[in-house]
Amino acid sequence: MSDRSSGNAESDKRYQLIDRSMKRFDYQKDALLEVLNTTQEAFGYLSEELLGYVSDQLNVPLSQVYGVATFYHMFTFDPLGDHNCIICTGTACHVKGSNLIVNALSEAFNIDEGQTTPDGVFSLKTARCLGSCGLAPVVVIDGDVTGKQTPETTLQRVREIIALSAETTQAEHTRSEVEA
Ligand code: FES
C-alpha cells in the first residue's frame, strides 16, 4: 500500500469511510468492487481523483479500477449539485428513521432521491451503509459526515449551507462590481 495520493484525504472524513472499508478487507485486491461501492456511497459519484485513490491504496492498476467501475451500471461518474446530501438508508439508519429525512428533503426541494434541483444547487442521494452504524442515522452534507440526525436538523443544516453560499456569491458579485 502506498501513501495517500490526495491532499484532501487527510481532512475529508469521507476518505476515512473508504479507508475503513479497505481495512475491513485487509486491503485485498478482491475488495475492489466493495470499496468502489463504499466510495460512491460516501461521495455520491466516482471522480477521477477517487478512482486514483482507490487504485493507489489497493495497489490495483488504475485501468483495472476503471474497468470495474465502468462495467457495473450502479456506478455513476456524474458530479453532484453545488451542495449535496447523502442519507444512509442501511438497516441501522433505516430503523432510526433515515427515510423520514429523505422524505423531508425530497419534499422541501421538490426532487426525488438521486436527483439534482433544476438550478443545479442541490442533490439528494442515498447510500446503503456508510459504515458508521453506531451514529445512525448518518448523513453526509457537502462531504461532512454527521450522525444522529433528524429531518429537522438535516433540513436546517442544508438550508443554512445553501443560504450562506448564496450570500457569499452575492457579496463577491457586489465586490467585483464595485472594483470594476
Ligand atoms: S446503516 Fe447507516 S451507517 Fe450503517
Listed once per kind, the bound small molecules are: FE2/S2 (inorganic) cluster
CATH superfamily of the largest domain: Glutaredoxin
What is the approximate shape? globular
Total count of domains: 2
Order of helices and strands: HHHHEHHEEEH
Strand order of the largest sheet: 2-1-3-4
What is the C-level CATH assignment of the largest domain?
Alpha Beta
How many H/I helices? 7
Rg (C-alpha, Å): 17 Å
User: What is the helix content?
Assistant: 40-55%
Mean pLDDT: 89
CATH fold-level name of the largest domain: Glutaredoxin
Specify the structural class: alpha+beta
Strand content: 5-15%
Amino- and carboxy-terminal Cα gap: 51 Å
Q: Please tell me the CATH architecture of the largest domain by its name.
A: 3-Layer(aba) Sandwich
Low-confidence stretches: 1-7
Instruction: Work out the number of β strands.
Output: 4
Largest sheet: 4 strands, mixed
Question: Notable features of this structure?
Answer:
single chain; 180 residues; alpha+beta; Glutaredoxin; 2 domains; 4-stranded mixed sheet; 7 helices; 4 strands; 10% strand; globular; disordered N terminus; binds FE2/S2 (inorganic) cluster
Q: Could you explain how this protein is built, in words?
A:
The chain is α+β, with helices and mostly antiparallel strands. It folds into 2 domains: 7-71; 83-179, Glutaredoxin. Helix content is 51%, strand content 10%. The radius of gyration is 17 Å and the shape is globular. Bound molecules: FE2/S2 (inorganic) cluster (FES).
